[in-house]
Amino acid sequence: MPDLPPDLPYRRNVGAVLFNRQGHVLIARRADVAQDAWQLPQGGLDEGEEPRQAVLRELREEIGTDRAEIIGEVPEWLRYDLPAELVGTALGGKYRGQMQKWFALRFQGEDADIRLDLDGHPEFNAWRWERLEELPRIVVAFRRPIYERLVEAFAPFTIV
């Protein structure tokens, strides 16, 4: 992979590993790409926003509900670089990748509370509950190391 421009920063971001009562995780399919790209809900931090506030806001914006409680977090910030072909186009063309704070959350609602259609520009067009350990196999390759770390960190939450 060619070197990324050194002046491009990482976008600060939060991510949600949302567990249901059976210990499965919500994964959603991106609406804005042609490929079958599945991922966990995540999004950028607003100026002055705390990560714990941001993760609940992102859930509300992306899946239509924030009926969840934070039950864990990865202590360190995790990073990934975009593939070279996406630098300059993805993330508004302003970032080399993302620096993410990840949280485990327990879903307090019902499946009917999950609404991908509440925003005029939905990020996702489908969702399902999946086993945590399956996530690295499902996601796009450049996100795989992050998801492997999430499996390691949040495996205890799969036991109900």
Automatic annotation (TrEMBL):
Keywords associated with the record: Hydrolase
GO molecular function: bis(5'-adenosyl)-pentaphosphatase activity; guanosine-3',5'-bis(diphosphate) 3'-diphosphatase activity
Family membership: Belongs to the Nudix hydrolase family. RppH subfamily.
Named cofactor requirement(s): Mg(2+); a divalent metal cation; Mn(2+)
EC number: 3.6.1.-
Short sequence motif Nudix box: positions: 43-64
Organism name: Teichococcus coralli
Protein name: RNA pyrophosphohydrolase
Xref: HAMAP family: Nudix_RppH (MF_00298)
Residues annotated as domain Nudix hydrolase: 9-152
InterPro entries in alphabetical order: Nudix_hydrolase, NUDIX_hydrolase-like_dom_sf, NUDIX_hydrolase_CS, NUDIX_hydrolase_dom, RppH
GO biological processes: nucleoside phosphate metabolic process; ribose phosphate metabolic process
Function, as annotated: Accelerates the degradation of transcripts by removing pyrophosphate from the 5'-end of triphosphorylated RNA, leading to a more labile monophosphorylated state that can stimulate subsequent ribonuclease cleavage.
A Pfam family reported for this protein in Swiss-Prot or TrEMBL: NUDIX
Keyword tRNA-binding (UniProt): no
Enzyme's top EC category: hydrolase
Transmembrane regions listed in the UniProt entry: none
